[in-house]
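Run folding on both entries below.
>entry_1
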Amino acid sequence: VRVVGGEVTNFGVATTPQLHFYVYTQDASPGEDKYVANAVAALDALRAGAPKTKVTVDCSNGVGYPKMAALAPAIAHQFDVTLVNGDVENPAVLNAKCGADFIQKEKVTPLGLDAAAFGEHDHVAAFDGDADRLVYFYFKDGQFSLLDGDRIAVLYATYVKKLVDELEGKVPPPRMGIVQTAYANGASTQFMTGTLKVEVTLTPTGVKHLHHKAVEYDIGVYFEANGHGTIVMSDSFQAALKKVDHPAAARLLAVASLASPVCGDALLDLLLCECALSHMQWGIQDWASMYADAPSRMTKVTVPDPQRIKTTWDQTRTTSPDGLQAGIDAAVAGFAPGARSFVRPSGTEPIVRVYAEADTQANADALAAKVEDVVREHLQ
C-alpha cells in the first residue's frame, strides 16, 4: 500500500464490524475510543432511567470476547455482562459447538453454558466468530428456544414503528421497509406485513444484497435468519428528525447513531435489542410470544450440475430447467395453505439446497422430501 502512495493505519485487534466502522468514519478520528464513546452516548440516550440488566454472552471463542470485555466497563452502569467461550488463543475452538452460527443452525445449547443455570426470563445471547452476527436464546422448562435474526428484525421494526407513530403529523411519513431473504421464516414475514403493516422486500442471500436494498428506504431494517443485520436511516429523514423537539425524534436519532450504518455488528445489535426491550418494557417471553415460527426443514440434494438451476432474482422460484418449478408447485399443493418450498443451487458444492415450510414439523419434513425427489427427477 505504501509503495503506491497509500497510508496504512493499524487498529490492532478488531471485529469485522469495527473495522467497517473505522473505514466509514475515517475522516472523523476513527478508532475504538470513538466506537465505544458513540455506543455509550446512544445507549444512555435510549436507556435513561432503565433498570440495570444482566446479560450473558457466548462469544464463540472469537474476537468478540476481548472487544466486548473492553466495552463492558463503559456500559457497566447499564448492564451486568457475563462473557463465556472466550478462548481466543486456540484457533481450533473458534465457533466449535458454540456461537451464533452453530446455535442458529443446530438449535442446541452451546458448549460452555449450563442450561440448568438459566430460566425463561434470562437474557442470553451469542456472537459468531468475527462478531457480525447475533442471536438470543432462552430455556423454558429445560427446553432450548432460539430468537434468531428474524426475531431481531421483528423486534427492531416494532420498536422503531412505535417511535415513528408517536411523531405522526410532526415529520413527513417515512418510507419504512424490512428486507429479508427467502430463508426468513414465513411467520415473521406475515407478522410484519399483517400486524405491523410494514413493507417487506426479499433479496438474494448475502448481506450485500440486503444492505443495498435497505438503504433505499427512509428506515430500512434488514436481517438474515443467521443474525446478521442492522437498521439504517436516510440522511433526509434524520435531518427531518433534528428539526423536531420530541422524545421520539431524539430516540430515533439515537437508534440511528447506535446501529451500525454499514453492516451487522453483534456488539451494537446486542445493545440495541436491550434498548428496544427496555423501552417497550418487555421481557424475553414477551419478545418470544410475538408470533410462532412456521415449522421448517432445510435439506440438500447432491446432483451432477446444480448450476442448471436458474432462479428469479429473489430466489423464491426457479426459471429452469423446464418443469422444475411446476413440480415444486405440485408438491406444495399437496399440503395445507401456507406451505411453501424453494430450491437454489450451491455456488461452491455439487448440491441443491431445499427449504420447506408447512403447518407441522412432520409436514415440513415430508414436503422437503417430496421437493428433493422433484429435484432429482429434473437434474439426475
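>entry_2
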Amino acid sequence: MQPSATSSSTSFQCGRMQQLKHFEQKRISSLAWRPYSGGMLAVGCQTGVMLWQVRSHPGAPRPLPRHLCAHGHSPVTSVAWSSDGRLLASASPADTSFMVWDASSVDCTGTPICRHGGGGVSLLAWSPAVQEVGMSRLLTATPSPLFRVWETHGFTCERWSNLAGRVTAACWSPDGNTLLFAMAGDPSLYYLTFFVAKTEESRQVGGANAAVKCADISAVGMPSAGDPDEIIEVGGCVQSMVWDKTGERLACTFTADSPGHSLVAVFVTKTLPVVEVMPCGFIRGRRDEVPAVIAFQNDVQQGSLLSVAWSSGRVAFVPLLSNTPLQSEPSPQTADGNTSQWISAAAVAAAGTTFSSSTKVAPVPAQKVAPVPARKDLMQTHVQSHVASSQSPLLLARTPGFR
C-alpha cells in the first residue's frame, strides 16, 4: 500500500500547456485538484492513483509523480479530496474497500476501509467541512442500488438501500448537510438532509431515513432563444452535477442517450427552509460539441464561475451573477479567446433563456423572481418551486453503524 515513484515519468510544456505522462498512467478515469496545494493533481487510472505536483512556471523542475497503489485496488474510477486537502480517497468498482491516503505524511500512507454489500465502490463525493462538529462526510456509492455515507472522524457509516438504481452523480451543499444525487435510468434529482449530532464519545453521520425527490428533469422540447421555430430537446438522466460554493447554482450534464446530452443545464437552488431546485437556463456549445467536464471555481468573490470543457477540447467560462446588481466588467473569455457570456441567472430564470457559450449576452440587472406553483415537468416551466413537503419521499432502508 505504499506509494512508488519512478524517474521514467516525463513532462514538457507546449506553449502554456503542460503534459503529464507516465507509463503507469493508462485509461484515465478521474481527476481532482488538491485544495490549498498550489498545483497538486490526483489522477485515477488503470493501475491506481498518480499524484502530480504541476509546475507553476517553465523554469521549475520536472514533476516526479507518486504512484499510489494497493493490491486489488484497480482500476481506480473515482478520486476525491477532503476539504482541507489532507486526505485523498480513491475507489474501484473491483474492490469492496476504498482507500484513504494521508497526503500530508511523507510516505502518503494508505488505509483501506471496507464494508461488504453492494460490490465495489464506483463513486466518491467528499463534503465540505461541517463547522459545528469539526468533521466532514464522505459518500461512497456502489455499482448496485446501495450507497453509504461516512463521518470522517471515526469513519463510521450509515447505509441506504432499496434504491431504484445505482447512484450515478452526487454533490454536497456548501454547509455539508445536504446531499443531492441522481440514479441510473431515472431523470430526477433527490436529496438527503443530515443533522448535526455530536456526543462526547463519537460523532454520528446523522442522515434522514428517506430521500426526497426535488426535481423532475425528464426530457421536453423548448423553443430556442435565437430561433423560435427551433425546438431544443432538453433534460434526461444526469451524468454529472456540481454545486457552487454559494449554494445558489447547480449545473448538470446528461447521459449520451438523453435528448439533452449536448447541453449543460443550470438551476437556481436553495437549501433553507427546504431544498428547492428551479430551472435557470442552458449552456450550448458549438455544433457537434458535448460537455465533457464541468466545474465551479471556488475563489470567485461575487456570484459563481462555471467552467465547461467541451468534447472538442475547448474550455468555456460562464459567470453567473444573482441577488446583487451587476457591475461593469470586461467580457469573459473562453480558452480559445472567444467571448463567453456574462449573464444574470435570475434574469435567465425569468426569461427561460437558452443560451450558447459562444454568444455574447449583454448584462442585465438581476431581479428577484417570485416562485409559481410547481407543475409535473420541471423543464416545462421557467421558474418553479419544489417544496419538500409536497413531494413523495423515496423510500430507502437506512442502516447505521458498521455495515
